[in-house]
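Below is just one:
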Amino acid sequence: MLKRKTEGSVLCTSCGVLVGVNDDSCYNCGRRNPGLWGFAPLLRSLGNDLGFVNIVTGGTVILFLLSLVMSRDGASMGLTPHNAALRVLGASGASPVFEFGWWWTVLTAGWLHGGILHIFFNVLWIRQLGPEIANLYGAGRMIIIYTVAGVTGFTLSSVLGLVSIPFFGAYVTVGASASIFGFLGALVHYGRRTGSSHIGQAGLQYALIMGVMGLVMRGVDNGAHLGGFLGGYLASLILDPLKKERIDHIAIAVGCLAITFIAILYTVISAMPYLK
């Protein structure tokens, strides 16, 4: 069951119905490349997102707890990490990127959060949108979109933070919302590319509602949101949801995860002296 199949039928990675191993899409749920080049029996055990949503959830929770431990005052520990702890763990923004030259924080900042409500709502959005993007684009392209959106979001936020534009840009910033807006940008492009107005309008409406909320609420990084949305849209434009997901998309996705994990590992190692 766990070996690669080159002919016959396999279970669709998403819905579990029998499909041809080389079918372009599942006749039941519409998932593209449901056989995943014959590796569906192995990969289906990880879910249609190849376990990425659980990886992000677990990683962000672990880093959030670590940031709280680093922010403790003696034996007491609150639910809001200090900026100093977030900086050490890889917060991005104008200060880390341009003052200290920590360019790699555009990869790590999306795994950090500034409070319990911040991480709670972001994780909810990731768990809601991640599997949907995986269904529309494939797991590999979903991971690429998530990573690219985070990088473009925090890059734009850092640049705008230098010029102090009201409501946009940040001196120090964290959160997965840049990548979440990237997912919304991908939904908008999917709707335009495929003619699915329902999906495109849903993505745009969510982005507009969250964007307006960002303008009226304090402490929201609208620059990261805007950059993430544009990054997600452009990434999906290049990846083209009407084309079949290729195995090199999975390889690029693995590369994105590897680079991100190396950056996170570096930040965790650098944080160890602060835990004493």
Remarks:
- The longest helix spans residues 139-163.
